[in-house]
Structures are given as structure tokens and as C-alpha cells.
Design goal:
Blueprint (H helix, E strand, L loop, with lengths): L2 H10 L7 E5 L12 E2 L9 E2 L3 E4 L5 E3 L18 E5 L11 E4 L3 E4 L4 E4 L13 E2 L10 E3 L7 H9 L4 E5 L3 E7 L3 E2 L9 E2 L2 H11 L3 E8 L3 H10 L4 E5 L10 H8 L2 E5 L3 E2 L5 E5 L8 E6 L3 H19 L8 E5 L10 E9 L2 E4 L9 H4 L3 E5 L9 E5 L5
Parallel strand pairs: 5-6, 13-16, 13-17, 14-15, 17-21, 19-23, 22-24
Antiparallel strand pairs: 1-12, 2-11, 3-10, 4-6, 4-7, 5-9, 8-9, 18-20, 20-21, 22-26, 23-24, 23-25, 25-26
Length: about 400
């Protein structure tokens, strides 16, 4: 299957996003908005001072009187033109004030109680100067963020400012990672023909950044019965496996899927690295819930290719996230391609250009550790000066 077709299949196998839930602002981080974020109030909700200084009425000089107006104080009043009152940044503008004179521009004569404008600008203080007018950022009822957007820290802050305590979001898909392979070590140096497991530590954070709640990562021995039991019993919405996707003597994933009655949606993809990746729909749970399985190759960079090709679009669609807009950048030097397949190449991005990194073999991670993203290189490669799509890999 072609690479783009495989990605689209991962999206299209999801009929509807997961159900809508209500979360506190703190707990909504990383979820997708289930409905547009609409302002519940004007922002700012009243005219406020943009600077520390004096709220002034009319042209100067001004007679200063009254206590300073601080952020959080109730409304004050300037009784007449030619009067002023000290004011703090963010404080509500007193009724009758026409402008704010910055502290660094004002000269206060304590003996006479008068304030003079010592700014270098010509003429009197312009009406509205250094005032944040009510509704400058938005008005009540205005759509601030569309549905499907990811709740980031900035969105949390905007929602709080706009009057929200809780948000309607889609439930995040639950993922369990099954790491397959008797040759893998969890600690220490490689020895006796065995190697360290790189995917167990690396994939859960990546899957979380794709919108998943990862409930665990567990090792499963190279045994058909144990793998079948692990897949069948997993409570996850999406089971992600590493290794066993090819046709080696202990690659039992295809046999497992057949025994549990799964339906293969993607079985190998025309992409390098990672072509033996797969996607399957598992039989419904007793309560009617649909589950999927993403099979990633065991080589580390190949597994990352499988993650961005199948797992990421599947998880984002399940979680209700809008599809990311593709980003294209100019190749600083030729990006080598495969003769027939799409190639996903670790690249660094500088000044709107991308450059390929060394150490890009399917079993390597050294190049990826320095990468800003993966360039999508069509068969034959991309010449210098031409553009290529670049996927910002989550966490990079």
C-alpha cells in the first residue's frame, strides 16, 4: 500500500471520535476541543491601564488626588478635566479618564500636587493612549478557537481569561504498548547476543504527544499463546506492538491476528524504513467497543516511521483532533530517495531549509536524536532547491 494511502486508511477507519467528556482546565491539557471555544465575556472585560503611571482626564497639567487605583480595585472616578490619579498596570480605568500617562513620562510636583507630562512626543497626551479598551482582544460570543483544536497551555490560559472553568473535550484514546522480542534487555549493556530495548522507553512519550493515554508498556515473550492472550485481554482502545510484523521464525503477530479474528486494514506499506508495519481492527469488546492494533517493526527508526504513518493519524482522529496542515520546506542539498518507495528521512531545519542527517538506517537512532522532523521523500529523491513535506515529529 502506498504511504499516503496507508495514512489515510488510519484516519478513515475511525467513524466518529471518542465520546465527549467535561474536564477541568488543568485536566483538559492535550485533549481536543469537542466544541468551539466561544468567549463568555469581552476581553478585557473593561477598560484597563496598559502601563503603570497616572490615569488622567483631559490635557495637562493635572491635579493629582485620591488613592492609587490597583488591579482588582472597584471602579474609581475622576471628577473633572485636569485631574489625575496613580494607576497600576491592569487596573480598571476610572470613569472620566481619557488616557494614561506612563510613570517614566510623568513629573510629579509633590509640593503643589501637580503632574506634568515630560514625554518627548509632541502635543498633549492623546485620548486613549496606553489604555486597553474593553473588547480589544475579543467580544462575548466570539469564536476564539475552533473545535478539534488541541488544548495547549496557551489555550488553557485563553479559556480561563474568557471565563471557563471546564471544557468539553473528546476522551483521549487509551493505548497499551506490547514490546515483543526475547532478545531485548531492559537494563545494562548488550551481552550474549541480546540488545537493549530502545522502544519501551521511547514510544510511550511519543504516543502521549499524539493524544493518547498510555496505560502501560509490558514485555511479551516470543510465544504465540502469550501474544494472543495479551492482545485479546488488553483493555486499550489501541494496542501498539513492536516487532513480529515480518515473517521470521518467531514473528507471531499475523498468526495472532488471525486467531483472534482481527481484520487487517494495512499489511505492509511502500515506505522506507518501516515497510512491514500493519494496522488491524480487533473484534468488538463485550460492551461493543471497537479496538485497533498498530503493529510497528522492531527496528527503532522503522518503528518511528510506523508511528507517524499509522499510529499518529489513528490516535489523532480517535481523539477528535483536526488534521495537521502539511509543512513544506526547501531542501538545502539533495534528499536521497528510494527507487520505488517513499522514504522518511530524519532532517534538521534551518532558515526555512532542511538538510538530511547521517545515521538514518532502520536500526539507528543517532540521526533521529538530532532531528527536527522527518522529510517525506518521494521515490527518486528531492533535488536541492526543491521543496519536500516535513513532518514535525511529536516531542521534537
Amino acid at each position: 500500500m502506498a504511504w499516503e494511502q496507508a495514512r489515510q486508511t488510519a484516519r478513515d477507519c475511525v467513524g466518529q471520535p471518542l465520546p465527549v467528556v467535561t474536564r477541568s482546565l488543568a485536566d483538559a491539557l492535550g485533549h481536543a476541543l469537542a466544541e468551539p471555544l466561544t468567549a463568555l465575556t469581552d476581553l478585557p472585560p473593561f477598560d484597563t491601564s496598559a502601563m503603570d503611571g497616572w490615569a488622567v482626564a483631559g490635557p495637562g497639567p493635572w491635579l493629582v488626588g485620591g488613592a492609587a487605583v490597583l488591579a482588582g480595585d472597584r471602579s474609581a472616578r475622576l471628577s473633572d478635566y485636569g485631574t489625575a490619579v496613580p494607576i497600576a498596570t491592569g487596573a480598571r480605568l476610572p470613569t472620566g479618564a481619557t488616557a494614561v500617562l506612563r510613570r517614566e513620562y510623568g513629573e510629579f510636583d509633590a509640593e503643589g500636587g501637580t503632574l506634568h507630562d515630560r514625554s518627548t512626543g509632541p502635543g498633549p497626551v492623546a485620548p486613549g493612549r496606553d489604555i486597553r479598551p474593553r473588547g480589544q482582544e475579543c467580544h462575548a460570543g466570539e469564536v476564539l478557537i475552533p473545535a478539534g483544536s488541541t488544548v495547549t497551555p496557551a489555550v488553557q490560559g485563553l479559556a480561563a481569561a474568557a471565563g471557563y472553568d471546564r471544557l468539553a473535550v473528546h476522551r483521549r484514546p487509551i493505548v497499551e504498548l506490547l514490546v515483543l522480542g526475547d532478545e531485548l534487555l531492559e537494563s545494562g549493556l548488550p551481552r550474549h547476543g541480546r540488545v537493549r530495548d530502545a522502544l519501551g522507553p521511547m514510544l510511550p512519550p511519543w504516543l502521549r504527544s499524539c493524544g493518547a493515554d498510555v496505560i502501560g508498556s509490558r514485555r511479551v515473550a516470543d510465544d504465540l499463546g502469550l501474544l494472543r492472550e495479551a492482545v485479546h485481554d488488553s483493555p486499550a482502545d489501541v494496542v501498539v506492538t513492536t516487532g513480529s510484523t515480518a515473517a521470521g521464525p518467531v514473528d507471531f503477530l499475523h498468526a495472532t491476528l488471525e486467531e483472534v479474528g482481527a481484520r487487517l486494514l494495512v499489511d505492509s506499506v511502500a515506505v522506507r524504513p518501516g515497510h512491514p508495519m500493519l494496522l488491524a481492527e480487533l473484534p468488538p469488546t463485550p460492551d461493543g467497543r471497537t479496538r485497533r492494533l498498530v503493529g510497528l517493526p522492531g527496528n527503532p527508526l522503522a518503528a518511528v516511521a510506523g508511528t507517524v504513518t499509522l499510529a499518529a493519524p489513528l490516535l489523532r482522529r480517535l481523539g477528535g483532533h483536526a488534521d495537521a496542515e502539511p509543512c513544506r520546506m526547501r531542501a538545502a542539498a539533495p534528499l536521497p530517495g528510494h527507487p520505488r518507495d517513499t522514504r522518511l528521512l530524519p532532517v534538521q531545519c534551518t532558515d526555512h531549509e532542511v538538510a538530511a542527517l547521517p545515521f538514518d538506517g532502520p536500526a539507528m537512532l543517532r540521526g533521529l536524536a538530532f532531528a527536527d522532523g522527518l522529510a517525506v521523500v518521494p521515490p527518486g529523491g528531492v533535488p536541492a532547491g526543491a521543496t519536500a513535506e516535513v513532518m514535525r515529529v511529536p516531542g521534537m
